[in-house]
Specification:
CATH superfamily of the largest domain: Periplasmic binding protein-like II
Distance between the termini: 37 Å
Structural class: alpha/beta
Order of helices and strands: HHEHEHEHEHEHEHEHEEEHEHH
Protein name: Phosphate ABC transporter substrate-binding protein (PhoT family)
Number of domains: 2
CATH class of the largest domain: Alpha Beta
Radius of gyration: 27 Å
CATH architecture of the largest domain: 3-Layer(aba) Sandwich
CATH topology of the largest domain: D-Maltodextrin-Binding Protein, domain 2
Strand content: 15-25%
Keywords: Signal
Organism: Streptomyces capillispiralis
């Protein structure tokens, strides 16, 4: 932190001069000007002090963590645990993984949460940011359908069938062996880690087609919103972290080309929509950011991964 700066008021502002003292009549306007100068100098001093305090934390003095809604439950629990040690950590989910990466690059936050690997496009978009990703575990993205669809005969889908669903070419579940029920697709908004994993599975390195012009297609944001839409819409399908449907009997994850999102298949990479989970910093983490990341990597922190349905680093051999 830079040394504090002491401001010395000029003689005219302090009522002193280098010559003899003169008794001058009181002028309210001059007094107001002196008061305004003092207030302005005080504001500059406060701004400099705040800038020093904000170097590693937000304006509130808390470490700001933001990004992926998949990583957020683990980060929130870790922040709560560290609160007992006097650490102030705020966790938010603005814009998903892409939003967190952008906020980190602009200096708005100290740690970004991401449910996708850092892409070359991310680095080229922010050339002045020294991204340092730390993997904390792994997850699986599932193609989630309602129980009515699954029990009606749709327990497995091929990549070609999923493309047909999300491109609006398959509009009724009976076309893939399911019930006579209209398909309603909820896709994730661009920049979400979940969306990028799905696009990679379906299209590889090719650019995905634009969304279909259909009344049965909608774009959603975070995982909780996606789950709520699935549960409230008959015939719905959406990409969603499989951990978010645990305990929700009305939702099912179909197998992909016959491969289920089991821990073994996720750890081995056999399941085609496995993904790593990250915490990212600009440069090597220091201070509260270092403490936070070290906690998530510790035995207590990794137990949080298991609690929320993710795989630990040990389970994936890291």
């Amino acid at each position: 932190m830079e040394p504090l700066v002491r401001f010395v008021l000029p003689a005219s502002a302090s009522g002193r001069s280098s010559g003899r003292r003169h008794h001058r009549p009181h002028h309210p306007r001059a007094h107001r000007r002196r008061t305004a100068r003092v207030a302005a100098l005080a504001l500059v001093f406060m701004s400099l002090a705040t800038a020093c305090a904000d170097k590693d934390t937000g304006a509130t003095g808390a470490l700001q963590v933001s990004g992926s809604t998949t990583v957020a439950p683990v980060a929130a629990d870790a922040a709560q645990a560290l609160k007992a040690d006097g650490l102030d950590i705020t966790v938010a989910t603005q814009g998903g993984s892409a939003g967190g990466i952008s906020q980190l690059a602009s200096g708005q936050i100290g740690i970004a949460m991401s449910s996708k690997p850092l892409a070359d496009e991310d680095r080229s978009a922010h050339p002045d940011t020294d991204f340092r990703p730390t993997q904390i575990g792994a997850d699986a993205v599932g193609v989630i359908v309602t129980r009515e669809v699954a029990e009606g005969g749709v327990e497995n889908l091929t990549a070609a069938q999923i493309r047909g669903l999300f491109e609006g070419k398959i509009t009724n579940w009976s076309e893939v062996g399911g019930p006579d029920l209209d398909v309603f697709v909820y896709d994730k908004e661009p920049g979400r880690g979940t969306r990028e994993v799905l696009d990679k599975y379906l299209y590889g390195d090719e650019k995905p087609p634009p969304p279909p012009e259909s009344g049965n297609f909608a774009v959603v944001g975070g995982n909780l919103e996606t789950r709520n839409k699935l549960e409230s819409t008959p015939g719905a399908v959406a990409p969603l972290s499989t951990s978010f449907i645990e305990g929700h009997d009305g939702l099912r994850a179909v197998t992909l080309d016959g491969i289920a999102p089991t821990p073994e298949n996720i750890a081995s990479g056999t399941y085609p929509m496995s993904r790593p989970l990250y915490l990212l910093t600009d440069g090597e983490p220091e201070g509260t950011a270092r403490t936070f990341i070290d906690y998530v990597l510790s035995a207590k922190g990794q137990a949080l991964m298991t609690r929320h349905g993710y795989l630990t680093l040990q389970q994936i051999g890291k």
